[in-house]
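To illustrate the input format used throughout this study, we show a single complete record. The first block contains the structure-token representation of the backbone; no residue identities are included at this stage. The design step must infer an amino acid for every position from geometry alone.
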């Protein structure tokens, strides 16, 4: 580890005590059957911030998001805005404002764009505010408005990813979990999508936990980064510092 990253890690740790994070995870372990995948992760997402989790295939990134939502057998402490949510049913966690955009998008292919979006809002009690939110979402993704009656399965890969993100936003989440949003998309589509993430974060104040293979894009978007290796955090710090550290990029990020 470089001296610069070590210094910033210490500074960030001290700064993190100043205010309660939106998401605080301590000692997170997870397993599939007898196979343990995560080995005691500690990480945070600042209120209104963007944190990225990076690592090679098999490092445990997707499992981390699933464990936060209690979709996989896990142990440890997970707190949302200071309140423990670990051990709660996934639906309860969703109702508290955690929206998950899974890898593979997970859209309902036989339903229309609009029907998919309505499903995203099914847990909300403020029914009167749902209709105005359609225009807010369509403002982010005008292409979806053009195709609002179109069957989701007929959309392009980029449009399906936009729909998956939009469906999550219809929940009006406090925390958005994004699993490989750039996977399989053309570079221009990826750039546009990440620009929208930045706008959503800035305008709506939604915290984001981003799992992403495109390390360069993720580190440009996020304020803080954690690097996983075989289910353990091997490095963390401000994204800008990690992005600019050549030894870190070569050793862990492959660019």
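Output of the design step:
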């Amino acid at each position: 580890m470089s001296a610069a990253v070590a210094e910033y890690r210490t500074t960030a740790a001290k700064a993190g005590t100043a205010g309660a994070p939106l998401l605080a995870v301590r000692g997170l372990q997870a397993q599939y059957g007898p196979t343990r995948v995560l080995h005691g992760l500690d990480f945070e997402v600042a209120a209104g911030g963007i944190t990225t989790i990076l690592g090679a295939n098999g490092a445990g990134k997707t499992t981390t998001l699933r464990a936060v939502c209690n979709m996989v057998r896990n142990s440890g402490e997970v707190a949302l805005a200071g309140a423990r949510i670990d051990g709660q049913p996934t639906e309860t966690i969703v109702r508290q404002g955690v929206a998950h955009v899974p890898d593979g998008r997970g859209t309902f292919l036989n339903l229309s764009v609009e029907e998919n979006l309505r499903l995203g809002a099914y847990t909300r009690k403020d029914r009167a505010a749902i209709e105005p939110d359609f225009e807010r979402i369509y403002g982010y993704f005008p292409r979806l408005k053009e195709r609002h009656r179109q069957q989701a399965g007929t959309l392009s890969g980029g449009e399906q990813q936009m729909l998956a993100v939009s469906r999550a936003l219809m929940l009006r989440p406090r925390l958005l979990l994004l699993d490989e949003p750039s996977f399989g998309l053309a570079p221009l589509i990826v750039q546009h999508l990440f620009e929208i993430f930045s706008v959503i974060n800035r305008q709506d104040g939604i915290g984001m936990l981003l799992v992403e293979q495109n390390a360069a894009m993720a580190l440009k978007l996020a304020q803080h980064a954690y690097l996983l290796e075989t289910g353990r955090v091997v490095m963390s710090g401000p994204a800008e510092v990690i992005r600019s550290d050549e030894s870190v990029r070569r050793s862990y990020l492959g660019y």
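Structural context for interpreting the output: Residues 1-18 have pLDDT under 50 and may be disordered. Residues 60 and 247 are 23 Å apart (CA to CA).
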